[in-house]
Specification:
This protein has 601 residues and is an alpha+beta fold. The protein contains 21 helices and 15 strands.
Length: 601
């Protein structure tokens, strides 16, 4: 847990990125800008960010671009919320933009220089002055949003948000407000309509304000946990390294001893829990509230009421694990409820452990967990249910293959591709232990109103130590998406997710399904094989959907197609990691040579 908190905090340093193009800013131009902006000082409390950084004497990590962009955006939202709280204004006036720009450049020059946020993150230079729906003041927001909704926002958010229960309740309410009042088409990141409910809530709905640690972590996904080391310590660097290593070693021994003791107690406690569950008498029902987890525990009666006793018309999805129902909780928030079939009390320990891991995983491109329910019903009917964020705009499968949906433009497809890649890279490289999804497909890629991709069902994954590969007796993949080594031998590694991502990317680019057709011998023609044939013959752009309404630059579309073919290569070692894929898609990094495919495969 301590390692996780430190890792989350290290990401905070990504906040100190420039808010404009910082390519090769000369000292002369920098000081000239500083002088010109002196007459219009920046009204944002940028010292707030600097103070939070200097409080924590932690080395700067090597952050990927996706993480940098996410923390830049959330950092801006926090500063705007602090500005709104003190002035009642959402946006900055154009005459102070340069001053704020220069202040950020001055700050970032000490930490992460030469990061071009304009090209890397797509933010426009007038991002902080452009209004959303002509809202410039607090009263404008309160005029647009109904009084009842404002009261419900305050009821859900006016509490400490350090606990997951309070945070989830507040975030769900704000998501409903965003869907109802701030649903806008993609404006090229000129304004920040999606952030307005969170900016307002942190400023006025929550009594603690945006700079409170719980509020910042919940509403802006920022962890401001300070370290115990005082700033300004004059100890030499080498001495700090030596002493830090020594105390780190001692601390590790203490942690290992503590975890050993805790593990024994945890196992003994859960054995008692299982024994108690099995003692439930006929006609009674027991809700397990004893398994330790940080997520919300719902009673079975609450789930029944939310789904109207699992009414058929509330079914929004079906899968091998069971059905997914749309539900309305008591606080008015909508959720997706996954009911697992063929459950037994013996598996509750594993399920509770997975819930613990899922609850701690939060990323803009991953569907978030609301809570869970474990129940034993009459005649031994055992139930396990997950309550997840409800994503309203359907799945990628719907938008690609359902006739009622419009064809996606290149800019939207590119945004979706990057979102899925970032979410999957976070599962592989951003959490410990790494999460291997094992069933990535277009129906598991959900889209919100702004076409931000959210990867679902990673809660069904198995958690393995980093680098571990083993043989499993159960293959969870889907035909056309499963990597050969997984489909044939059950071998599991992060590379099986890379293969599935490559197939999803090919579907997104071509508009064709993972299995194109079956021949006369009932053998499938796989999309990955067809795409490879196009690349091998020098017709890379033939992979791109010819019915796409708005195409992108040919060289960019070609790069995405080559990445998809490389990721879906049948040879494990030929595939890049998801972290490498994100870097290739976001930068001008050359694509590795795609090796030939074995003829037998």
């Amino acid at each position: 847990m301590k390692t996780l908190l430190i890792s989350q905090f290290l990401l905070l340093l990504g906040l100190v990125l420039p808010l404009t193009n910082s390519k090769a800013i000369s000292h002369e131009n920098f000081h000239r800008k500083l002088g010109s902006a002196a007459n219009s000082p920046c009204p944002l409390n940028i010292d707030l960010i600097q103070k939070l950084i200097t409080q924590n004497d932690i080395p700067l990590p090597l952050l990927d671009i996706a993480t940098k962009c996410q923390y830049v955006l959330q950092g801006i939202r926090l500063l705007r919320s602090d500005y709104l709280r003190t002035t009642g204004l959402f946006s900055l006036s154009p005459d102070v933009l340069d001053a704020c720009w220069v202040s950020y450049v001055n700050l970032v020059d000490r930490f992460i220089p030469r990061f071009d946020i304009k090209s890397k993150c797509g933010l426009k230079t007038n991002f902080m002055s452009q209004t959303c729906k002509n809202i410039t003041t607090k009263s404008d927001f309160e005029t647009l949003v109904s009084g009842d909704e404002l009261q419900q926002m305050k009821g859900s958010c006016d509490q400490s948000l350090k606990k997951n229960s309070g945070c989830n309740s507040c975030v769900d309410r704000l998501s409903r407000v965003r869907t109802s009042y701030f649903r806008v088409s993609n404006d090229g990141n000129v304004s920040d309509c999606n952030g307005y409910p969170f900016i307002y809530a942190a400023a006025f709905s929550n009594r603690f304000g945006p700079t409170d640690m719980g509020t910042a972590k919940c509403l802006f996904l920022l962890d401001f946990s300070p370290s115990n080391k005082k700033s300004g310590d004059p100890k030499p660097v080498m001495w700090g390294i030596v002493t830090g290593s020594f105390y780190g070693f001692i601390g590790a021994l203490v942690v290992v001893w503590f975890l050993w003791i805790w593990n024994k107690k945890w196992k003994r406690k859960n054995k008692e829990n299982l024994a108690q569950i099995e003692e439930v008498s006929s006609g009674e029902m027991e809700i397990s509230g004893r398994i330790s987890t940080s997520s919300i525990k719902f009673s079975f009666e609450e789930i029944q009421k939310a789904t109207r006793n699992f009414a058929r018309e509330n079914i929004i999805g079906m899968g091998g694990y069971g059905n997914v129902y749309k539900g309305m909780l008591q606080d008015g928030s909508e959720v997706a409820l996954k009911r697992f079939k063929n459950c037994s009390a013996a598996g509750d320990q594993v399920f509770a452990h997975e819930v613990e891991v899922i609850a701690s995983v939060r990323h803009v491109n991953l569907v978030s967990l609301r809570g869970y329910c474990i129940a034993t019903v009459y005649k031994g009917d055992h139930r396990r249910i997950l309550a997840c964020e409800l994503v309203q705009n359907g799945s990628l499968y719907d938008h690609l293959f359902q006739p009622k949906f419009k064809k996606l433009s290149w800019s939207i497809r590119q945004k979706i591709a990057l979102g899925v890649a970032r979410g999957l890279a976070y599962l592989h490289h951003g959490v410990q232990p790494a999460i291997i999804h094992r069933d990535i497909k277009v129906s598991n890629v959900l889209l919100d109103e702004a076409f931000e991709a959210k990867l679902a069902d990673f809660g069904l994954a198995k958690f393995t130590p980093e680098g571990q590969t083993h043989v499993s007796t159960r293959v969870a993949g889907t035909l056309g998406y499963a990597a050969p080594e997984y489909a044939l031998y059950g071998q599991i590694s992060q590379k099986i997710d890379v293969y599935s991502f490559g197939v999803v990317l090919l579907e997104l680019l071509s508009g064709k399904k993972a299995v194109i057709e079956f021949n006369d011998e009932n053998r499938p023609l796989l999309l990955s094989d067809w795409a490879w044939s196009q690349v091998r013959e020098g017709r890379v752009l033939d992979v791109i959907d010819e019915c796409m309404p708005e195409l992108g630059p040919p060289e960019v579309m070609e790069k995405y197609a080559l990445v998809a073919v490389l990721a879906s290569h049948p040879v494990v070692n030929a595939r890049p990691s998801m972290d490498q894929i994100v870097k290739i898609l976001e930068n001008d990094i050359p694509i590795p040579t795609i090796p030939d495919r074995p003829l037998l495969l």
